[in-house]
Design brief:
This protein has 185 residues and is α+β, with helices and mostly antiparallel strands. The chain folds into two domains: 94 residues, P-loop containing nucleotide triphosphate hydrolases (Rossmann fold, 3-Layer(aba) Sandwich); 57 residues, no CATH class. Helices cover 31% and strands 18% of the residues. It has five helices and five strands. The chain has a five-stranded mixed beta sheet with strand order 1-3-2-4-5, with helices on one face. α3 packs across α4. It is globular and about 45 Å long. The two termini are 35 Å apart. It binds adenosine-5'-triphosphate (ATP).
Length: 185
């Protein structure tokens, strides 16, 4: 994947310089600039850039194998790009150490992976509560919020089951609940 949706007037401070005279001052929450990533001889990203404003909804689309997952993994600090920079809320993710990137992922990013995302030994409720428990939220509070999200996604009935005992679709919903459980409000 190469090129960018919008890669002009880059400033890493989280604000977008006015462009086109509209007095635009949308806060840029996520900025990725010139990302390169190869797996052995396979280039997955070849200068990909992306900006996402606070509150903006963005879909990344492209053919299978074009680098969408690699891009998202790089911006979320899961994969380190070979070159290029990523800023989240003005902080440079690509320069953070492992512990700082883990804390950022736990607190600020929700991810639904394609495969193997739920911890098989935990119940679905425990899986959803996990990001909160890792942030030291008390078990009762974490499980109450996890229950609310499971019910919102219409899988409250699988709370006590383990991932191996639920359908693929139910498992995906549980993963979505886990991705959203740390969301504010
Ligand atoms: N861990 C890895 N090891 C080796 N090659 C990889 C790895 N991850 C991705 N690739 C390769 O990098 C390229 C981009 O993969 P990526 O998963 O980012 O694509 P994608 O657009 O998300 O694909 P899909 O839509 O099929 O999920 C592909 O050629 C893929 O085979």
């Amino acid at each position: 994947m190469s090129g960018s949706r919008e890669a002009t007037d880059l400033t890493p401070d989280g604000t977008r310089a006015p462009s086109g005279g509209a007095g635009e001052a949308q806060r840029r929450l996520l900025v990725a600039d010139g990302l390169h990533k190869s797996f052995g001889a396979t280039p997955a990203l070849d200068g990909a850039s992306l900006e996402v404003g606070a509150g903006e909804v963005v879909a990344v689309m492209g053919p299978s194998g074009s680098g969408k997952s690699t891009l998202l993994h790089c911006v979320a600090g899961i994969v380190r790009p070979d070159a290029g920079r990523v800023f989240f809320d003005g902080r440079e993710v690509s320069r953070m150490g492992d512990a700082e990137r883990s804390a950022l992922r736990r607190g600020q990013f929700g991810f639904v992976f394609q495969f193997g995302q739920l911890v098989p030994e935990l119940t679905c409720l425990e899986n959803v509560a996990l990001p909160l428990r890792l942030e030291r939220v008390r078990r009762r509070v974490a499980e109450r919020r996890a229950t609310e999200w499971l019910e919102r996604l219409e899988v409250g009935d699988v709370a006590g089951k383990r991932p191996g005992e639920v359908s693929g679709g139910q498992g995906q919903r549980v993963a979505v609940a886990r991705a959203l459980v740390t969301a504010p409000g």
